[in-house]
Write a structure and sequence with these properties.
Order of helices and strands: HHHHHHHH
Number of domains: 2
Largest sheet: none
CATH class of the largest domain: Mainly Alpha
Number of strands: 0
Shape: globular
Helix content: 40-55%
Strand content: under 5%
Bound molecules: heme C
CATH superfamily of the largest domain: Cytochrome c-like domain
Length: 175
């Protein structure tokens, strides 16, 4: 299916016909739907100020955003997801400039205690998870940090991209 059509069917009510985030439903929503016109994205595995990867966008679209009114489009065919991503890119010129692209950052594996709910809750209230994310610039800018880099490094031994999703997931539960 053509990207524009996928967008009109599934996204326009929130993101608006011009991709500026002012769709019919946007008045009722908090946070507001993203405007795609600035080409700035929050949910990325890439460094601050750079564009997200295709995989980042696909993950957001497919998985939705926890605690946020973004419908889950788990049943959109892959081709439609790809097409709608291309369409979103047409809203901003930033996608045309090579300097706005960057490879995903290597992220540490979530620490073991993240799987243990009681421990996780204790640590979350002291801000450890929160800072770990902020430190990796995943774009959860509304939260501030508490722990030093050394302490964060000590809790994280391996590197993986998946940790972004699981941490973001955990963070949203906490928030
Ligand atoms: C019910 C309203 C709603 C619908 C429908 C919706 N979105 Fe969203 N979308 C949002 C909101 C709200 C946010 C902002 C979340 C935030 O700021 O934390 C968002 C954020 C996003 C982001 C994240 C941008 C970033 O900063 O990383 C992408 C990408 C996105 N939407 C794509 C889509 C696509 C593609 C569709 C259709 C297949 C769609 N959305 C449908 C409400 C919606």
């Amino acid at each position: 299916m053509e990207g524009k059509y996928v967008f009109e069917r599934n996204c326009i009510v929130c993101h608006g016909p011009r991709g500026d985030g002012t769709g019919e439903m946007s008045a009722q929503l908090q946070p507001k739907p993203r405007s795609f016109r600035e080409g700035m994205f929050k949910f990325r595995t890439t460094p601050a100020g750079t564009l997200p990867t295709e995989a980042d966008l696909a993950r957001t679209i497919r998985g939705g955003l926890n605690g946020i009114d973004m419908g889950m489009f788990t049943n959109l065919p892959d081709d439609d997801v790809r097409a709608v991503i291309e369409y979103i890119k047409s809203f901003s010129r930033r996608w045309r400039k090579a300097e706005n692209y960057a490879p995903p950052m290597k992220l540490p594996q979530p620490p073991k205690w993240l799987d243990d709910k009681p421990q996780r809750n204790t640590r979350a209230t002291t801000g450890k998870i929160v800072h770990w994310i902020a430190q990796n610039h995943i774009g959860i800018s509304r939260l501030s940090g508490f722990k030093s880099d050394a302490e964060i490094a000590a809790t994280a031994d391996r590197e993986s991209e998946e940790s972004v999703c699981s941490l973001r997931h955990d963070l949203d539960l906490i928030d």
